[in-house]
Amino acid sequence: MDVFMTGLAATPVAAGPAGDAVRVLRSDKEAFWARLSFGVVALGALLVLLTFRDYGVTWDEDVHNWYGNFVLDYYLSLFDDRSALHWRDLYNYGAVFDMIAAALNRVSPIGIYETRHLLNGLVGVLGLIGCCKLAHTIAGARAGFIAALFLLLTPNYYGQMFNNPKDIPFAVGIVWSTYYMVRIVPTLPRPSLRLLAKLGAAVGMAMGVRIGGLLLLCYLALLLALDGTWRAVTARRAAVLVESAWSSSWRVLGPVVLVAYPVMLLFWPWAQTDPIENPLRALAFFSHQTFPFYTLFAGRFIPATDLPWSYLPAYIVLALPELVLVLLLCAPVVGAVALARGGFRLHREQALAAFVLGIGAQVQARLLGELLCRGRPRAGRLFAHHVWRGFRGARIYRGGVRPAYFGRLLLPTEFPVHTPARRGRFLHRLHQRQLRPLAARTPGLPGRANGGPALGRVGPPRSSRRAADR
Questions:
Q1: Distance CA 37, CA 342 (A)
Q2: DSSP labels, 15-63
Q3: Helix, strand, or coil (residue 302)
Q4: 290 contacts 376 by C-beta, under 8 angstroms
Q5: What would the pLDDT profile of 360-409 be if each residue is shown by its tens digit?
Q6: Can you give the pTM of this predicted structure?
Q7: Where does residue 348 rank: exposed (0-12), middle (13-18), buried (19+ CB within 10 A)?
Q8: Which of 374, 405, 429, 392 is closest to 314 using CA atoms?
């Protein structure tokens, strides 16, 4: 019998030998996809081990390397060395990744940035595992394999997971937090303390990278409120909502906060000096932070704080693989068909899991866009507009970029010829992959290269600025 029958998952399991046979077939099928998922993760880990030396230094890594050492010295000096409390503006960040990297560099036999890139890549592989487990929990082992494969093949993730010390660790914390939120849904309102401790640790690690992870606690509270509302409507008793709110507060939200907050403070010396006010100050700092430079879009230099509405869709279309875009367009249709076949009925677990993935994705998009990608929030705008303009801090060059360029991601040492006509595209691909050439000097490259001095100011030449202003 073919174990890959598409209708097998929908076949009811009967009692007796026939039912046992179906269970065995389902188990074999799940095991097959689980082995494929393991292969994807193993491939990602192997690529990291083989290529981490080929990646150069991004302009953020130098200051983050110093910050990690200052935080490590803060503990090694028994809190006497307080340089980490006022190092540039990085004291507004937690130092989960930077401190671990600094500790490894004290014993690592390879170079400073090679060690950071190896650790960064392995953290990215941890994100692959979290994405696979999240999809597996919601839709089965086959979905887990597809999710892990597509994430590995997404250029923006794969390229940046070697030398992006903020976005990749934060994304990993987000995906693991989301996974554990989905895990607690079937056991509400009394999930196990072990599961809550894991959720708290994941949320704390995310907050230990960026205080924006605090939104995960609000997100959890909203999930619990929705669960209580569902139970109250089902029971047709308003008192159930009050009982559920009280029970969820001390049985679920309280334990998660009690684990997450100390984990965050452990890696954030500045927050330790005022555990309530300083995290809120950091949150306010990021909510008003802007990127005061020009960015290439559609062949023109445009202020990053005033990008057109078409910037975000163009960025998504160019950054995501074509197959992912096609599937994203198909997803609403497939979801509507599935709801129609089920008589538009959802179980509580299905509805809450959909909430975690659907509404949560929009909330996280606003968080990443407005608070983390240097966009300035504007009062009175629609929520969708916040998401739309959220990712203004990223750079993109639209003119002349072909999807095939992203396919060269796995060959990080290959760069195009630096002719003037192609320099804009070269800089775009260089930035999108978060790479720097191994050559120490590349004309026109902004920021730092291989940890050396800055090669010039960031932004377009003055003549281009004047032309853009006209």
A1: 29
A2: SSHHHHHHHHHHHHHHHHHHHHHHHHHHHHHHHHHHHGGG----TTHHH
A3: strand
A4: yes
A5: 566 555 544 443 343 333 333 333 333 333 333 333 333 333 333 333 33
A6: 0.73
A7: middle
A8: 392
